[in-house]
Amino acid sequence: MNFAVFCSGRGTNLAALLDAHEAGRIGGAVPVAVVCDSHHAGAINVGRERGIYSTFVPRTAYHANRDGFERRLLEVLAPLDVDFVILAGFMRILGNVFLSAFPNRVINVHPALLPAFPGHDVWRKAIDYGVKLAGATVHFVDEGVDSGPIIIQGTVPVFDGDDADELADRILTVEHKILPQAVKWLAEERITLSGRHVSVKGVDQPTRYNNCIWPPFDFDYLNEHHD
Ligand code: GAR
Fold first, then answer.
1. Probe ligand 1: pick from 8, 12, 13, 38, max atoms within 8 Å of CB?
2. Three-state secondary-structure class, residue 136
3. In a domain, 209, yes or no
4. What is the residue range of 38's domain?
5. 3-state secondary structure of 180
């Protein structure tokens, strides 16, 4: 299963994917292209240093012409036999021209527990709102803003006094785990989509259950007697 990675930023999620591939942790998923929509995207160097075909498709060259931008993205991918597209810090909304060419085959990592805090500057918004748990989401991409069916989420606590950068760094560690996991499931064809509901074959739900409760209880909950 070949995949392309679209990036706008520095590319730590891309690096996590490439590390996972090199370590044999994403099954038969093979990175074949990195596409950056801005010449400022450091991710291009991450791709090139790892020997992955890496190229720019600058969004600004297309001004208000999103369809033209998306057709160019499709042209770049056409010779590469791409099965899936991974948005890893890609700060553009894709529309029907692109998505109809990859139905349910585009996924995105977002640094919030969707549907809370879609869009931009989500770490600041989560802190300002006063949430106790934040996290990251990997989801299928539809034409909305961070609105597609959810594949996997992971949580982190928000500490008193956190600033946006501290929270972003904590969430990023989760992104680097859940994105390769989702790609592995895709490569193994274990994901089933039914409406908004995503299920993963072979995941033993009861034994994989993890609590993440924050702030922590100040009593030993498990040893309390509950009628
Ligand atoms: C990541 O936190 C990613 O979740 C976010 O951009 C950052 C890119 O970092 N993406 C979005 O906000 C998309 N809505 P990276 O370039 O180091 O992977």
1. 13
2. strand
3. no
4. 2-199
5. helix
Bond preceding residue 115 cis, omega within 30 of 0:
yes
Ligand 1 atom 7, closest CA? 89
Cβ(9) – ligand 1 distance below 6 Å: yes
Summarize pLDDT for 194-207 with one digit per residue, the tens.
999 999 999 876 66
Mutate to test the pocket of ligand 1, among 7, 12, 113 (most ligand atoms within 8 A of CB): 12
Find the 227 Cα to ligand 1 centroid distance in Å.
46
Write down the residue that tokens 């409760």 correspond to.
213
Q: Which residues are catalytic?
A: 110
Q: By alpha-carbon position, which residue is closest to atom 17 of ligand 1?
A: 12
The number of folded domains in the chain is 1
CA distance 38 to 59: 7
- How many residues does the structure list for the chain? 227
Q: Verify whether ligand 1 is closer than 6 Å to residue 13 (CB atom).
A: yes
Mean pLDDT, range 75-96, rounded to an integer: 97
Ligand 1 atom 10 nearest Cα: 89
Whether residue 60 lies inside any domain: the answer is yes
Residue ranges of the alpha helices (H) in the chain? 12-22, 43-49, 66-77, 96-99, 122-129, 164-187
The answer, as to whether pTM is greater than 0.85, is yes
Distance 89 CA to ligand 1 centre (A): 3
pLDDT band at 90 (very low <50, low <70, confident <90, very high): very high
CATH code of the domain covering residue 106: 3.40.50.170
